[in-house]
């Protein structure tokens, strides 16, 4: 699913692109305090599920997991891991 991640002092949010929203993409958000771990997950699927790209993996304290295909995934992971304790600059692009 394509879209954009936003990081605030309190939450992580995802907004799908217009086209992805039309094909079932959904907005998502979670308080930073609800995030248990931030990591990556190897690609598992075909062209319509992100192809062969490594995904951003967000594990929540309630046991649920969210996966996102993002550019610069390793940089995003580092920023989000810090954000659970502070930083808010997220490299989009």
SSE pattern: EEHEEEEH
- Sheet of most strands: 3 strands, antiparallel
Total beta-strand segments? 6
- Write down the Rg: 13 Å
Report the sheet-strand fraction: 25-35%
Helical content band: 10-25%
Oligomer: single chain
Structural notes for this entry:
By secondary structure, this protein is an alpha+beta fold. It is 17% helix and 34% strand. The strands form two sheets. The protein has a three-stranded antiparallel beta sheet. A three-stranded antiparallel beta sheet has the order 4-5-6, covered by helices on one side. A hairpin with a 3-residue loop joins strand 1 and strand 2. The radius of gyration is 13 Å and the shape is globular. It starts with a strand and ends in a 10-residue tail after the last helix. The mean pLDDT is 84.
Chart the SSEs and their pairings.
Elements: E1 3-7, E2 11-16, H1 18-22, E3 28-31, E4 35-41, E5 55-60, E6 65-68, H2 73-83
Antiparallel strand pairs: 1-2, 2-3, 4-5, 5-6
Summary tags:
2 helices; globular; three-stranded antiparallel beta sheet; alpha+beta; single chain; 93 residues
Give a brief outline of the structure:
Helices cover 17% and strands 34% of the residues. With 93 residues, it is of the alpha+beta class.
